[in-house]
Specification:
Chain lengths: 111, 114
């Protein structure tokens, strides 16, 4: 158990709908990362939080994507107006300093 | 941006034998961290081993060890006495000491043959 949970584990949505994913790390993990992973690829960095501050965002993160981490605890990743190309596994990782522990991921399928 | 290359999409090893997975990276920085992560089928990714670039000594964790060649920008993972539970995707990752992003390779799928 890495101490990082994600909800939901699977999400099927129709193109054009909005979806929101949640990540819950343990309280000691002040750093939080979101990644996208497609089949046969390694995780691609999306965004990074230190406590409640979003300090980095990838160029991959279009304006349809937004992430929050209110109060430096759980985090949400929202995708608006989903497209078929958004189908992927969305991974959350959290930790302190240079370590990161991964959650089980949310698999998104856009039909 | 830093790039991480894993040139072996698939590898196989006999149970109890030793296998080495390759990883190279490109960076102009001198201080950074390197990692190997394991992702079993349908299970979450876990950290296998970590290496700080400023340390000359290669990291070891039980049956897992690395060969870190800083000048060559090479970071290979050696798994000794391979077990069936070692079967998984293995990802090499890089993180700068000054940045926050982790950069991952495309992974190596390891099969362990009984």
């Amino acid at each position: 158990d890495t101490g990082v949970s994600q909800d939901p584990r699977h999400k099927i949505t129709k193109r054009g709908q909005n979806v929101t994913f949640r990540c819950d790390p343990i309280s000691e993990h002040n750093r939080l990362y979101w990644y996208r992973q497609t089949l046969g690829q390694g995780p691609e960095f999306l965004t990074y939080f230190q406590n409640e501050a979003q300090l980095e965002k990838s160029r991959l993160l279009s304006d349809r994507f937004s992430a929050e981490r209110p109060k430096g605890s759980f985090s949400t990743l929202e995708i608006q107006r989903t497209e078929q190309g958004d189908s992927a596994m969305y991974l959350c990782a959290a930790g302190r300093l240079y370590e990161q522990y991964f959650g089980p991921g949310t698999r998104l399928t856009v039909t | 941006a830093q790039t991480v290359t894993q040139s072996q999409p698939e590898m196989s090893v006999q149970e109890a034998e030793t296998v080495t997975l390759s990883c190279t990276y490109d960076t102009s920085e001198s201080d950074y961290y390197l990692f190997w992560y394991k992702q079993p089928p349908s299970r979450q990714m876990i950290l296998v081993i970590r290496q700080e670039a400023y340390k000359q000594q290669n990291a070891t964790e039980n049956r897992f060890s690395v060969n870190f060649q800083k000048a060559a920008k090479s970071f290979s993972l050696k798994i000794s006495d391979s077990q069936l539970g070692d079967a998984a995707m293995y990802f090499c990752a890089y993180r700068s000491n000054t940045g926050n992003q982790f950069y991952f390779g495309t992974g190596t799928s390891l099969t362990v043959i009984p």
